[in-house]
């Protein structure tokens, strides 16, 4: 099937009375890495969660790799890999057990083995240790090992450089390039554009739930006028 | 995903929940202690008359199971909410009902283990006569617990997204438990008295019907309630 990339049309999402997204439209070709920029509360994480299908938009529509965002969520999840700010690992399980659990939940369809994934993220030495004793950097490396085990077509990264040392940042950027070069799409929500320099193809800026038109200079007042 | 893959996913979720509980032990000890305390306090409230205690035993034991078991369901989803694991869990491909069934099995094993420790205490405290109907009593205990755990696991998933989940869960769960409670207490009471009217069978059939209905409805609705 041809890769149709990512198409989001007028996506809006409300939490109670507050609109996190107010009609966001994004298009991305296969093989693209995009940095999502914006202040806290601008809607970056909400947008990632909607693309991941763990959050349904209040309004709007879209397709991911040709699958309808609202009606074919299960098909989209087959292609999605995430690294969120919260690592999503179980503290009472060891690093190896966490990855074994993921492998079973994928129906055994992991491309890279548990030990190889731990080796790649530099956690082989802690494979038998419970994740509850890990530092935040180690916990995020463990979450990254999940991505390594089953390379996704849609890679969604939320503040991926937080808690990582230079090696960790390099590892994140390697995965970004591998995904994009393999014909996938990467969305990186970050406050830290310098660290994603050289790996992203485009930058999309969000302001109060709307995409800032390209060419608008940063600065709250100018941005607010541009998106109004 | 194939039936075999989904079965493996169910087993993986159950294993993960039980391993987490086995290692932390926090929940088991708390539930067992609370249940034993409740049995003791109900005993004090009824007074020292052995006949009154025996007569009320079936109702008290079932109420104790349901009130104390309520704590187990909180923990079942608390593990997922800590560190953002629920989001990751929902991203795995395959049927969401596999997650529900895995949690149901883990909670069932947990509550049955608590019961194994609790029932001897109840037999001694309430001078419960255990005679030839023991196999049928075990069947009633299993069926009643299954219905209770099915509803508890389902409503805990619904309450898990709410900030007031500790308050919300009993408010949602207990009214729905009335049919299971009624059938379990009546069947247990009849069997403890030697079933002179031959009515235990009817209550057991009713209990089976409730279990089947609650299980079917929970499997169908779980996917919708677990999403945000």
Summarize the SSE layout with pairings.
The complex is a heterodimer of chains A (228) and B (228).
Chain A: E1 6-15, E2 18-28, E3 32-37, H1 44-51, E4 59-64, E5 67-68, H2 73-77, E6 80-83, H3 95-105, H4 114-120, H5 136-149, E7 154-158, H6 166-181, E8 185-189, E9 202-207, E10 210-211, H7 220-227
Parallel strand pairs in A: 3-8, 3-9, 6-7, 7-8
Antiparallel strand pairs in A: 1-2, 1-4, 4-5, 9-10
Helix pairs in contact in A: 3-5, 4-5
Chain B: H1 3-24, H2 26-46, H3 50-81, H4 85-91, H5 96-125, H6 134-159, H7 165-192, H8 200-226
Helix pairs in contact in B: 1-5, 2-3, 2-5, 3-4, 3-5, 3-6, 3-7, 5-6, 5-8, 6-7, 6-8, 7-8
Question: What can you tell me about this protein's structure?
Answer:
The complex is a heterodimer of chains A (228) and B (228). Chain A has 228 residues and is of the alpha/beta class. Chain A has two domains: 6-79 and 152-227, P-loop containing nucleotide triphosphate hydrolases (Rossmann fold, 3-Layer(aba) Sandwich), CATH 3.40.50; 90-150, no CATH class. Helix content of chain A is 30%, strand content 25%. In chain A, strand 4 (59-64) and strand 5 form a beta hairpin. The termini of chain A are far apart. Chain B has one domain (3-226). Chain B has eight helices and no strands. The longest helix of chain B has 32 residues, at 50-81. The model of chain B has no long low-confidence stretch (mean pLDDT 90). At the A-B interface, helix 3 of A face helix 1 and helix 4 of B.
